Structure formats: structure tokens, C-alpha cells
Amino acid sequence: MEQQLKAPPDVKKVADFLRGGGAGLKIRVGALNGKRVDYFKGKSAIKALLSPAYAKLKGVPKITTEEEATTILQAVNAFAFYLRVQRGGPTGSSSSSPKALQIIPEQLFAPKEYYAWFYEGSQWTTYAGGVLMIVILLAGVMFPLWPPIMRLGVWYLSIGMLGLIGLFFAIAIVRLIFYIITVVVASPGIWIFPQLFADVGFVDSFIPLWEWDLPKKKSKKKKSDKKEKSSSKGKSRAEPTSTQNGGAFIEEVEDDDEPAVSKPRGGALIEEVEDDE
Known about the structure:
Keywords: Endoplasmic reticulum, Membrane, Protein transport, Translocation, Transmembrane, Transmembrane helix, Transport. It is a multi-pass membrane protein. Helices cover 42% and strands 16% of the residues. By secondary structure, the protein is of the alpha+beta class. The strands form 3 sheets. The chain has a 5-stranded mixed β-barrel. The longest helix is centred in the middle third of the chain and has 38 residues, at 148-185.
């Protein structure tokens, strides 16, 4: 667009930052006039300008508050790098289909509004990738014209790659056979290169050299918690009702020959004796 060409360098750098992958801007896909476009929410752009990644940039306005970020984003909106849109319902039958977008005549920037991109960002990576693909295709087509030394080097390189792939499959087959043998001979079995298929680095895939195939132990905390709960329930059921209320109780004993004796909470005995007089 013509308005984008008139943008100052600092505003264009802000737009390049937001459009690039380093900003961490959450991009959504919508449908505008039957075409798919990328759009975002204003609040996400404000967070991107307040991030440490933006603070490391050079040649861009310094931003420390949300108000300053809103002002810069309004300036980027004024040069039509993105336009304010209204989001509607899904364009397809499923809820995951792109939302319908419509451009709003009144253009302003607000955190709760949505904005559709009309700027593709820096295209040097796309151009470089296209040139590289053309060079690779031409090199492949012109392989018979290569010097003998280069063709021999490519042949050795391809043989080396195939050898590494074959060695990997051979190690996988050998470790499986060895594990089956050790399961029968020395249970529970031994794995050679136990980290071979784990999500680790190349060197860590071969460390340790071997390992017993031990089952994973359950956490002891869960068992201890269950035991504590069961013991507390057993104790609560075994306690008599008379020991409640601070542990003191009153017991009355009746006998035909002896007078009634009562035991108060303090532990002293009170005995009633009839007077002879």
C-alpha cells in the first residue's frame, strides 16, 4: 500500500517486529472478503511492545507503559499496516473454521479490538529461500557436468549417510534381540542404550551403555497418606464417647450395701456417709 511506503523508519520497524516471529504475537486466521488473513487482538500487541524482546531493539521508540504502547500502535494503524475489523461467526459449519471479518470505517486502537494484517513483513527470507531452491535444482540437473572430484565427494557423502542410517537400524535390532535373550536368562532383562529412542541429544542417546528393565516404582507418599488416613479413621471409631469434652468424665456407681459414690472431673472422690445421730 502507498500509505505503508510513507511510514517513518521507526514505525516501520515496530510493524516488522510485530509481524515477525520474535514478538510472540498471537496470530489468528480469519476470512475477509472470501480471503484468509491473519489478525490479532490489541491486548496481545501491547504485551509484545512491553516485552524484553522489544526493549532490545534499536531504532524504535522506547515504551515503558501501556499508554505509550497504545500511542505507537495507533501510529502503526494510521499507516494501514493493519486495520481494525469486526469479528463475526465462523464461516464454515464447524466452530473451528475461520471467523468472518469486516473492516470498520472508524479506525482507532484499543486493547479489546481486533486488527487484520495488511502487511507481510520483511520478505528477504522468502526471496533467499526461493533462490536457494533454484540453485539446488540447477545443481541437481547439472550433476553430470560437475568435476570428477565433486561428484566423488557427493558419492562418499551419500554412502556415509546411508551407512549411518543402516547402523542405527542395526543397533535397534541388536538391542531388541539382546533384551529378549536377557528376559529369559536374567529377568527382568537388560536394555542396551536405553536412551536410544528418548527425546535427548545425539550423544546422550548412547548414555548409559546398558540398564536393567526395572518397573517404575510408585510414589511412597501416596501410600503413606493412605495409611495415615486409615489409621486416623480407626482411632476415631475406637475412641469412646465418654472421653470427649476434654478427657474428664463423671461415673456413678450404685451398690446395695454401699452408698453412691461420684467421681467428678477433678479426679477426687466424694462419699456421702449417713449420720448416726
